[in-house]
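User: quick one, sequence for these C-alpha cells?
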C-alpha cells in the first residue's frame, strides 16, 4: 500500500498522484478484507477512521475482535463501536449491544444491551429487530413480553430474516403473543424452511412425521424435509432419513395392497350383479285381460260417391196404404200427369128460371 498523508481539514488522504476521501478508503479496506488481505484492510480502515468514516470504525472493531490483521482486543473493539454508535452508526449500536449482553470487552450489562439494541432496531436494522424480539421473549434487560417479541419478529420476518420467520412460526404455534393459529405457524415455518433455515426444515419434518399442530401424518412430506435438512448436515435429520424412508415404503405397499383388494371386491360385486340378471325368468301372462291386444294395421278406406236423393214433386197427395208388416212401409208414389191447359175454358151458362 502506498504511503498517504492525511488532510483532516479537507477530509482526504493524498500523495503526489492521488487524493481520496473516507468513503474511498473504506471501500479499499473492504475489498482487501474480501481478498483475505486483512493487514492491508486494517491500514485502509485506519485511514478512513482518521478521516471520520463511521463505517470503517465498525469494521475495524470487528477485525480487532477477531484478531484479523491486528492483535485481538475486545476492549479496542468496544472503544471503536462506541465511537461509531455515538456517530449514529446503527450496526455499531447492534454490535455494542451484543458486547454488553455477553460481556465482551466490557462488564455484562443487560439493560445497556437492551437500550442499544432497541436504538438499532428502531432505526430499521433488521438484525437488531430480530434480536430485540429475542430480548423481549426471554426478558433480556426488560420484562418478558411475548406480544412485543412477536411484534419485532414480525418486522424482521417481513424483511426476509429467516430466523425471525421461524420464531414467528413458534409464536403462532404456541399461542405466545399472537394467539394460537396453526395455519399461520405452518405458513411461517414453510417460508423459513424454503429460505434455507435448517431448524425450520427439521421442525416441519417432525410435524408431518408425527401429525402435530393440526396436521395429519404425511410421511412423504416428512421424508422430503428430513432429506433437505440432512443435506445441511443436521444430525437429527441424517438419523431420521432411513427410519422415515422405511415407514414410507411400507405405507406405499400397504396402500397398494388395499387398493388391489378394493378393486377385486368391486369386480366380484359386478360379476355377482351380472349373474343375478342372467338368472331372472320372464313369467307368462295368465289371463286374457292381462294380454296386450293385438295391434291392427290401419288401412285407409277409399271414399265412394253416395247417390243423392231426388225428390219428386206431385201435385196430389199420395194415398196411404195399410202396412203389411210390423214396420210401416212407405206408400208407392203414383206418377201424376199434368193436364194440358187450353186457351179458353167452357163456361156453364146460367138460364133464367121460369116462374
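Assistant:
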Amino acid at each position: 500500500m502506498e504511503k498517504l498523508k492525511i488532510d483532516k481539514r479537507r477530509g482526504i488522504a493524498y500523495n503526489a498522484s492521488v487524493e481520496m476521501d473516507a468513503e474511498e478508503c473504506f471501500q479499499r479496506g473492504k475489498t482487501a478484507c474480501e481478498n483475505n488481505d486483512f493487514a492491508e484492510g486494517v491500514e485502509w480502515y485506519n485511514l478512513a477512521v482518521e478521516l471520520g468514516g463511521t463505517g470503517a470504525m465498525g469494521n475495524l472493531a470487528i477485525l480487532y475482535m477477531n484478531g484479523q490483521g491486528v492483535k485481538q482486543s475486545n476492549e479496542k473493539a468496544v472503544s471503536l463501536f462506541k465511537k461509531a454508535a455515538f456517530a449514529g452508526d446503527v450496526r455499531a449500536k447492534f454490535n455494542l449491544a451484543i458486547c454488553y449482553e455477553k460481556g465482551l470487552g466490557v462488564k455484562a450489562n443487560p439493560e445497556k444491551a437492551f437500550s442499544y439494541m432497541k436504538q438499532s432496531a428502531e432505526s430499521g436494522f433488521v438484525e437488531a429487530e430480530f434480536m430485540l424480539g429475542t430480548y423481549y421473549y426471554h426478558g433480556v434487560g426488560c420484562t418478558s413480553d411475548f406480544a412485543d417479541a412477536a411484534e419485532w419478529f414480525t418486522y424482521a420476518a417481513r424483511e426476509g430474516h429467516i430466523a425471525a420467520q421461524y420464531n414467528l412460526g413458534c409464536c403462532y404455534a404456541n399461542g405466545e403473543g399472537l394467539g394460537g393459529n396453526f395455519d399461520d405457524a405452518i405458513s411461517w415455518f414453510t417460508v423459513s424452511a424454503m429460505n434455507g433455515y435448517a431448524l425450520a426444515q427439521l421442525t416441519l419434518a417432525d410435524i408431518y412425521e408425527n401429525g402435530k399442530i393440526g396436521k395429519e401424518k404425511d410421511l412423504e412430506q416428512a421424508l422430503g424435509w428430513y432429506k433437505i435438512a440432512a443435506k445441511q448436515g443436521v444430525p437429527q435429520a441424517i438419523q431420521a432419513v432411513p427410519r422415515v424412508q422405511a415407514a414410507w415404503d411400507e405405507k406405499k405397499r400397504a396402500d397398494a395392497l388395499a387398493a388391489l383388494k378394493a378393486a377385486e371386491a368391486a369386480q366380484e360385486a359386478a360379476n355377482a350383479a351380472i349373474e343375478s340378471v342372467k338368472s331372472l325368468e320372464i313369467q307368462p301372462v295368465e289371463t286374457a285381460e292381462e294380454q296386450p291386444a293385438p295391434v291392427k294395421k290401419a288401412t285407409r278406406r277409399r271414399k265412394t260417391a253416395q247417390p243423392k236423393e231426388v225428390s219428386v214433386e206431385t201435385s196430389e197427395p199420395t194415398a196411404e196404404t195399410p202396412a203389411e208388416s210390423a214396420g210401416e212401409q212407405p206408400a208407392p208414389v203414383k206418377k201424376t200427369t199434368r193436364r194440358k191447359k187450353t186457351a179458353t175454358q167452357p163456361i156453364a151458362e146460367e138460364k133464367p128460371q121460369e116462374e
